[in-house]
Design a protein that fits this description.
The protein is an alpha/beta fold. The protein has helices spanning 13-25, 65-75, 89-94, 96-118, 156-175, 197-206, 226-239, 256-270, 300-306, 314-327, 329-337, 341-348, and strands at residues 4-8, 30-35, 55-59, 79-82, 126-132, 179-184, 186-188, 211-214, 220-225, 244-248, 253-255, 282-285. It has two domains: 4-188 and 223-248, NAD(P)-binding Rossmann-like Domain (Rossmann fold), CATH 3.40.50; 197-220 and 253-294 and 313-340, Alpha-Beta Complex (UDP-galactose 4-epimerase, domain 1), CATH 3.90.25.10. The structure holds nicotinamide-adenine-dinucleotide and 2'deoxy-thymidine-5'-diphospho-alpha-D-glucose.
């Protein structure tokens, strides 16, 4: 069956992997990438597929409801996979309102357009909302987040994502729209923006800058290779139960300090540096306010119902990630110098 899928946030880290997967795997689908190209959006992430006949890009801010509606009409959008968001916890602590606007109001704008244009028959349409495990709050030493864990967001970022999840559920309940939500753990991989732990530290190790470890470094995250998240999104989109929710995780918990030491060791080997050279860069700094101690996902439901499981081990995924960053230092330099913003101008203004 043909579909015209709007993928929001497709120029970002995870979105670009989802766009690439859908454009290449489903040549009969029209894939429309809607993205405002904020600091985190980068069309270079998609340059290998941006000439594909089934790929379209629309530079639109999800705060602009009229423009969203025009894009829906222009492309006859049948389904939405919504990833556009402000995604960095540290930024949410500095500027919470940016997160309220994009993550809450932007999501409601998309829901409203979909509701209005699909109302004749919701049964042929799906609104898929991509969310985070951070909505569940922090775990102690024991236990895992399941789909029924109560929401307890602790940062402005997670509060905004929790709110957007509630709106999606409310639209399913109130207007009988078909929706689905997935809540995923920490992703890592190629094209990860170098403000987040793993790519920031890879960049700092390459350039021999300090590695700022928040607090005691004993915070725990559950890491998943981004391509496995994209495969999970494909499965949930096509086979997930409507109006349901799926947790996605890596079964792969690491304290920050253990992960950072592993990263230093692997990078020293790749860069032919002396053993433990990069560990000298580790610098303990002031903790992040409201820092969640531990996240860990129970992904049993998506495994049992849809047969999903991670396809790469952490060792494989981390090695692929480090190799990618070492081979793409120009990508990193373009971001850190801000030059990538010119890519859009040169690529799209004359088309
Ligand atoms: P990202 O910050 O790398 O990318 C976000 C994208 O959204 C960018 O391309 C940006 O330009 C776009 N965007 C931001 N504001 C916009 C607006 N107002 N209008 C249109 N586009 C806008 O984020 P990411 O890490 O790829 O995360 C994608 C989604 O997955 C987010 O919804 C995030 O909450 C969720 N998520 C992320 C992780 C993770 O580990 N990164 C884990 C679980 C869930
Ligand atoms: O759990 C899913 C979430 O994972 C996503 O929803 C978010 O969009 C994504 O940013 C990520 O959130 P985290 O806050 O867990 O990721 P971050 O990479 O910012 O931090 C990972 C851990 O490393 C966290 O405990 C804070 C710590 N840290 C982070 C940075 C940037 C440091 O110790 N030093 C740092 O410089």
């Amino acid at each position: 069956m043909n579909k015209n899928i709007l993928i929001t946030g497709g120029a970002g880290f995870i979105g670009s992997h989802v766009v690439r997967l859908f454009v290449t795997k489903y040549p009969n689908y029209k894939i429309v990438n809607l993205d405002a190209l904020t600091y985190a959006g980068n069309l270079e992430n998609l340059k290998d597929i941006d000439q594909s006949p089934n790929y379209y890009f629309e530079k639109v801010n999800i705060l602009d409801a009229d423009k969203i509606e025009s894009v829906f009409k222009k492309h006859g959008i049948t389904d939405v996979i919504h990833l556009a968001a402000e995604s960095h916890v540290d930024r949410s602590i500095v500027s919470p309102l940016d997160f309220v606007y994009t993550n809450i109001i932007g999501t409601v704008n998309l829901l409203n357009v979909a509701r209005h244009l699909w109302k004749e028959d919701y049964s042929n349409h799906l609104f898929y909302h991509v969310s985070t495990d951070e909505v569940y709050g922090a775990l102690g030493k024991e236990g895992l987040f399941t789909e029924t864990t109560p929401y307890h967001p602790n940062s402005p970022y997670s509060a905004s994502k929790a709110s957007s999840d509630h709106f999606v559920r409310a639209y399913a309940e109130t207007y009988h729209m078909q929706t689905v939500i997935s809540n995923c753990s920490n992703n890592y991989g190629p094209f990860h923006f170098p403000e987040k732990l793993i790519p920031l530290f890879i960049n700092n190790i390459i350039t021999k800058k300090p590695l700022p470890v928040y607090g005691d470094g004993l915070y725990t995250r559950d890491w998943l290779f981004v391509k496995d998240h994209a495969l999970a999104i494909d499965l949930v989109f096509h086979q997930g139960k409507v109006d349901d929710t799926y947790n996605i995780g890596g079964f792969n918990e690491w304290t920050n300090i253990d992960l950072i030491k592993l990263l230093c060791k692997l990078m020293d080997e790749k860069l032919n540096r002396a053993p433990c050279e990069s560990e000298q860069l580790i610098t303990y700094v002031k903790d992040r306010p409201g820092h969640d101690r531990r996240y860990a996902i129970d992904a049993t439901k998506i495994n049992k119902e849809l047969g999903w499981h991670p396809t790469v081990t952490f060792e494989q995924g981390l090695a692929e990630t480090i190799d990618w960053f070492l081979a793409n230092q120009e990508w990193l330099n373009n971001i850190t110098s801000g030059a990538y913003a010119n890519y859009y101008e040169s690529m799209y203004t004359n088309r």
